[in-house]
Amino acid sequence: MKSAKPSNLRALPAAKAPHGSFLYSDVARELRHRISQKLYLPGSKLPSMGDLTAEFGVSAITVRNALRELSHEGLISGHQGLGVFVREKAPIHRVLAGNPQSSIGDAIARAGHQVRIEEISYEEIQADADLAGELKVRRNARLFRHRKITFADDQPIALHITVFTPAIAKRLRQHLGKEFIWPLLARHGIDIDDLRCEFAAVAASDEQAQYFGLRPGFPLLRVHYTPVDADGVPIFSGITIARSDRFVFEVNLPQRPPESR
Predict the structure, then answer these.
(1) Domain-embedded: residue 156
(2) Cα separations (Å) of 120 from 1, 47, 159?
(3) Whole-Å CA distances, 242 to 11, 112, 134, 199, 247
(4) Which one of 14, 66, 157, 175 is CB 3.0 to 4.6 Å from 28, fit for a cystine?
(5) CATH number at residue 144
(6) Selection from 90, 69, 88 nearest residue 152 by Cα
(7) Mind listing the pLDDT tens digit for each residue in 87-104?
(8) Residue among 162, 98, 168 at smallest CA distance from 131
């Protein structure tokens, strides 16, 4: 299979890169753009290592690092003796790296799918013992629970359940059914200082199976997360239940200076 070689795309001159910058990320960004714009079609072979190093004016190590990043994202796959190919159907690679502007919707779009959100419910509940401890409120305190489903190309792939205190719920309610939570918090000036996450494999309940159109017992991935502000106050309790066959989750933990630990 022949590789696509766009003639109107410029190389990235290494000489103009800022000192200490990671050139592989520039190469990865350009290749990612070409894949998303279908300049490299699904199933097509990427240019050879020699062609890429010549075009971008970088070393083979830089190109390998860029290809490794795209491979981790599920966009490409290498085949020994054959080359590197654009994957026919990339898994959705969700990176949790503390970036408030990045959402699961971005990961879905990056994998080449159309994103849609459908709101299921918004209701007032009372805090049980677990929620009271997690959100630092009294038992039976008023809380608000929101549920929505994320679709990729009209296929339901993730169920989101978020629980808020009344003050936070009032600020976000108007947009909860239309936007993803992380950029929504950033837009309202709600800063996250820390994020606690728990990952678990679960079997789809009857209700969850109905949401996803799957059989009960289908393997799912459950991510339970609690963002915390600078004062140590929990902002909300969130659970995302995702199809384990469609997602790859990555946690990026930045190194903190010793004095801030």
Answers:
(1) yes
(2) 45, 45, 10
(3) 38, 18, 22, 11, 7
(4) 66
(5) 3.40.1410.10
(6) 90
(7) 776 678 787 765 556 788
(8) 162
Q: Which residues pair with 202 in a beta bridge?
A: 220
pLDDT for the residue 15:
37
Do 157 and 242 meet the contact criterion of CB atoms below 8 Å apart? yes
Between helix 60-72 and helix 49-56 the angle, nearest 10°, is: 110
pTM: 0.65
> pLDDT-derived band of residue 12, with 50, 70 and 90 as boundaries?
very low
- Size of the chain, expressed as the number of residues it contains: 261
CATH number for the domain harbouring residue 49:
1.10.10.10
Token output for 43: 């199933």
Q: Residues of 208-238 as b/e, b for ≥16 C-beta within 10 angstroms? A: bbebbebeeebebbbbbbbbeeeeeebbbbb
Q: What's the confidence (pLDDT) of residue 2?
A: 45
Residue-wise pLDDT tens digits, 136-183 = 999 999 999 999 999 998 889 999 999 999 999 999 999 999 999 999
In this structure, the answer to whether residues 209 and 156 fall within a common structural domain is yes
